[in-house]
Amino acid sequence: MTDEPTIQDLSSVAWPVRTARLTIRPMRAEDVETMWAYRRLPSMWEWISHDFSTLERFVEKMSPPASLSRTLVVELDGRIVGDLYLGISDAWSQSDVAEQAQGVQAEIGWAVDPAFAGQGIATEAAAELLRICFEDLGLRRIQALCFADNVPSWRLMERIGMRREEYAVRDSLHRTKGWLDGMTYAVLADEWRERQA
């Protein structure tokens, strides 16, 4: 497996990226406290992987340089309203072709400030993240994971054209709800391109 990507690995993207309403850019160290203001809310960390109920925990997890290579900030009218996760990785392969499988896929994720929920921001940002992955970065496969009970998350995955690949029974441990069912969605570059056409 290769190391985590760095900002230099994302240099083929002309940052910032703009959609109809949003600006997407790599996270900077000075964004951490603004992001924590919405990430600390119980409705946010109920479904995300890390307990960010204290600023110290959030700062520790989001400290440079690793977090800066995986986190993109979403702005609306110059204000941070959410963030995106982009984790580039190698695909599984046989050893004699492993080099061809390096850095060809990614896992994505999203978080939007609840004050801006219901405005289509997550859908617009996640759809643009797929475009960045396939067009700008040349990746071949994107996946996203969630608890099955996190209905808004998997519905968003379906809205942006991802297909359900796995429904796993009680494979995911939630910090307060115990073992829950998990889901994996994915889309290939050629599938995404067909939908764009």
UniProtKB/TrEMBL annotation:
Where's the N-acetyltransferase domain?
A: 22-186
Task: Indicate what this protein is called per its UniProt record.
Answer: GNAT family protein
